[in-house]
Amino acid sequence: MGSPTEIRTETREIDGGRARRGAALAVVCAGMFLVLLDVTIVNVTLPGIGRALGTGVAGMQGVVDGYAVAIAGLLLGGGALGDRLGHRRMLVAGLLLFGAASLACGLAAGPVSLVAARAVQGAGAAMLLPGSLAAVTRMFPDPGEQARAMGAWAAVSSTALPAGPLLGGVLVDGPGWRWIFLLNVPIVVAAVAGVLLLVPRDPAGGRQHRRLDAAGLVLAPVTLGALVWAVIELGHGDRSGALAAAVAAAAGAVALVLVERRAADPLFPSGLVRAPAFLGANGASLVMNLVTNGTLFVVTLWLQQVQGRSALAAGALLLPMAVPLVLLAPLSGALNARFGPRLPVRTGIVIALCGTPALLFTGPHSPYAVLLPTLVLIGIGDGLITASAVSAAMRTAPPALAGLAGGFNNTARQVGTALGAAIFGSVAGSPLDGAAFASGLHILAWVSAALWLAALAGTSLIRL
Which domain holds residue 335? Predict the structure, then answer.
């Protein structure tokens, strides 16, 4: 047994290690917070951006989807590069690129330059997101401790959901929409300093020396981009444009399958992508983001352009969706640590499903209270799903593929975000015709219910 002095020294070292890991976790969460903030803050400011830059629903969808498609298409590459080059390096590089693109967004002269800068923002996010998850799993290797860390990660990063609409409303009604992007720059500078000071370097022996699948890295974003564009064009009645985009998406998908079968180190390792728990967890993540962000997109338009509310008022009215997500993320982590991920994921899906019928009663002049059950129950459901679905996906992968596994889960979520804005915006149509827009919301109630039921069936695969 050691002397009292030795015991006190060891205790201080342990506490110092815990404190450092806690601070590093907060820094890693800051990266995810920025990525999510630039989804939610933009949604509530879209009408203001549209008026300022003279663009309609298609242009506003481009501002959302230019970002989401770039993230979704490039995340796997970001994860694979992190496994090979080190996730700490990718975190720093991604943050720097994200900050530079945010500056370009704030200075954009028109819708085309804004969408292009948003795509570069998405590329930066695709570099940092897998690294953030890989860093968490490396710093917290114990399964129970890791589940709780994932809960904290989800809670901190999810504060972007309530912060985005409120902050966006304040900025749009105050100094202007450009500040929703310019505000990122000082936060990025602080986050980079935090990563360099607190996040441990990747162990050289733990890196995966796989060859990069260059063809897969090109074909994946091209296929996804064409698919999203086909949905947008179909919603706007351009059948020829939709058909051309759909043919491009189908050709890209076929080419991607052929390339992956022949690749020595494929972007989609068969052992990982065929794991039942991996498929079920990522399917739940995709549906969650599709329905949540699709609903957020159309509800924002309904509040502002159908009912004439200000951006700040719309942001405040979206809080019932956002607050439960933040508050329940730690509970999801605790349930996951005790019972495994399937219980909280299933419970969250069922609760979110119960919120869909309220959309059937929403009209152009309906009181806000009619829509409230949809917002609250989606928020509660997402709060239970997020951390546990991420944890389930990460636990199916070996440590050397942690970045790729994180890339897959974030890809699933960002594919959901991109398709959510595209599908929900196309089905709802123009908010300038309030009656037709409300009819679109009624259709989306059934679409949402079908998607939640499919995700619920998929949870039977999660057996961890």
Answer: 21-203+265-461
